[in-house]
Write a structure and sequence with these properties.
- A hairpin with a 3-residue loop joins strand 19 and strand 20.
- By secondary structure, this protein is α/β, with parallel strands linked by helices.
- Helix 3 crosses helix 6.
- It contains 12 helices and 21 strands.
- It folds into 3 domains: about 260 residues, Vaccinia Virus protein VP39 (Rossmann fold), CATH 3.40.50.150; about 140 residues; about 45 residues, no CATH class.
- The longest helix is centred in the first third of the chain and has 24 residues.
- Helix content is about 25%, strand content about 30%.
- Bound molecules: S-adenosylmethionine.
- S-adenosylmethionine binds next to strand 3, helix 6 and strand 5.
């Protein structure tokens, strides 16, 4: 097996796993209007003509793409996405439009994700949103001379940004599971003048052992678990940064390797995020299953849910009570949604698509954030029933009701109400304040007033400092 800086192959399997892109609160992963793709060719031609003119006249005045890039960097600084001069210099230097050659130059410098590959109608690759990339590069804390492994090379843009920061004494290795994407990344990197990035075709779940160890390993693709290979390929004191699934919420977690009697990864920072999911052998068991027209249910292991029973309960709404706690749409995945997932084993999410018909839309206003949270017991369930209309911005709070369904619905509703109160009483904590320790599976984890999430290859111990989980809680997934 060999790595190459063109598009060689390092084994790995091509995952046939299909996964719907998470659809709610996905500010970092939005769809591309087809008409934008149609415009792309014409604009690219115009760009090429401008480049030719620039070369022939030897002009030094900033051309359109330079001005657009400068404006993007200004916006990332103003929004405090970029916080350090190293990350700022990388964004100023690397031309994003060369990594999206089929897109209009203007689009390349907008703060949005651009989908680049679909399989069976499901997006499997994208150029991530610059805001999210800046947040993650700050979390990664790269230094000149660092050796970095990126899992999810995609267009190669992030690899080029990192190469700019680690400089000639460092090394960037970027792996993608799809050969065609690696070929594209090689072309883009050559065009952008970053030929030293080592590109590998393979399954990032096994890392790239030939070139280990790495001071930093970063995934730019969502993962359900922490694979053993990533622990093994981290250098002492190294940092792993990955979009990690915490019972359906995806968090960008920076974890530092702590060597002791028991090897452990300790979180340095966490941010809410939304990435396409890992394919291949690291593909996760989470997912959503259709429940009714335009309605699906998302749970850690949705295959274990009795969907018929759930649908039957939902058909008979019982009493509801307006909660004293108001929620924003972002609280579905972060905030209360995250709190609920770490305090209630029976939590799941209902998702409603914009084209839903029947009575669901009136229950759960559809749109980019359509959906809600529920607790699902054997003989009853309770739902957070939003009273929000789709026009309300994602971060604006609105009143919610807690609605009971089924014979034991009122008891479940009472528990949901208490959890809402507890979250509000704890100061409405979000992902940003969450703390995580990760251990390999199989080792004995010190027990405490925390939630322990058991995955296939790791165990995650989670808490909000100052807000203990009473009696601890062991959860699967
Ligand atoms: C959001 S894109 C990455 C964007 C990229 N960093 C950039 O700057 O353009 C996620 C990428 O992860 C890749 N991917 C998915 N599963 C993978 C796996 N098991 N190993 C390596 N790459 C994988 C996808 O093919 C996709 O290109």
């Amino acid at each position: 097996m060999s790595a190459t800086n063109v598009a060689g192959s390092v084994g790995g399997s091509q995952g046939g796993h299909k996964r719907a892109v998470g659809r709610v609160l996905e500010p970092f992963f939005l769809g591309v209007p087809q008409r934008a793709l149609a415009r792309a060719g014409a604009v690219t031609e115009k760009y090429r003509a401008e480049q030719a003119e620039k070369a022939s006249t030897g002009q030094t005045r900033p051309v359109r793409e330079d001005r657009l890039r400068a404006a993007m960097v200004r916006a990332l600084l103003a929004g405090q996405r970029i916080r350090t001069s190293e990350v700022e210099r990388a964004f100023r230097t690397v031309p994003r439009h060369l990594f999206l050659p089929d897109e209009p130059v203007e689009r390349a410098y907008q703060d949005e994700a651009v989908l680049t590959k679909w399989v069976d109608g499901i997006a499997v690759s994208s150029a991530s949103q610059p805001s999210m990339m800046a947040i993650m590069l700050e979390q990664l804390a790269l230094r000149p001379g660092h050796r970095v492994l990126e899992i999810g090379a995609g267009t190669g843009y992030n690899a080029a940004l990192m190469a700019e920061i680690v400089g000639p004494t460092g090394k960037v290795v970027a792996v993608d599971i799809d050969r065609d994407l690696v070929d594209g990344a090689a072309r883009h990197l050559a065009a952008a003048g970053s030929p030293d990035v080592v590109l590998v075709t393979g399954d990032g779940a096994v890392g790239v052992p030939e070139l280990a160890p790495y001071d930093r390993i970063v995934l730019t693709v969502g993962s359900w678990d922490i694979q053993a290979a990533w622990w093994e390929q981290l250098a002492p004191g190294g940092r792993l940064l990955l979009p990690l699934s915490i019972r359906g919420s995806q968090l960008s977690v920076a974890l530092d390797l702590i060597d002791g009697d028991v090897r452990c990864l300790l979180s340095d920072s966490m941010r809410s995020c939304a990435f396409v999911r890992l394919r291949g052998r690291g593909a996760d068991p989470e997912g959503s299953r259709p429940l009714a027209d335009g309605l699906s249910v998302h749970a850690v292991d949705s295959h274990e849910l009795d969907l018929e029973h759930l649908a039957a309960l939902l058909a008979e709404p019982g009493a509801e009570r307006i909660s004293a706690v108001r929620l924003a749409a972002v609280d579905l995945w972060d905030g209360f949604g995250l709190w609920l997932s770490l305090h209630a084993p029976d939590m799941c999410r209902l998702l409603v698509s914009p084209d839903a018909s029947g009575w669901w839309p009136s229950l759960l206003p559809p749109g980019a954030d359509g959906g809600t949270l529920l607790l699902f017991g054997d003989r009853g369930l309770a739902m957070v029933a939003p009273t929000r209309s789709p026009e309300v911005p994602l971060d604006t709070v609105f009143p919610v009701a807690v609605r009971a369904y089924g014979p034991e619905g009122p008891e479940v509703a009472q528990r949901l109400d208490q959890l809402l109160d507890a979250w509000a009483g704890a100061g409405r904590p979000t992902a940003t304040g969450l703390r995580l320790r990760a251990y390999p599976s199989g080792v004995t984890v010190p027990s405490g007033p925390e939630a322990v999430l058991r995955k296939a290859h790791s165990q995650l111990v989670l808490d909000w400092p100052g807000n203990p989980v009473p009696d601890g809680l062991i959860l699967d997934g």
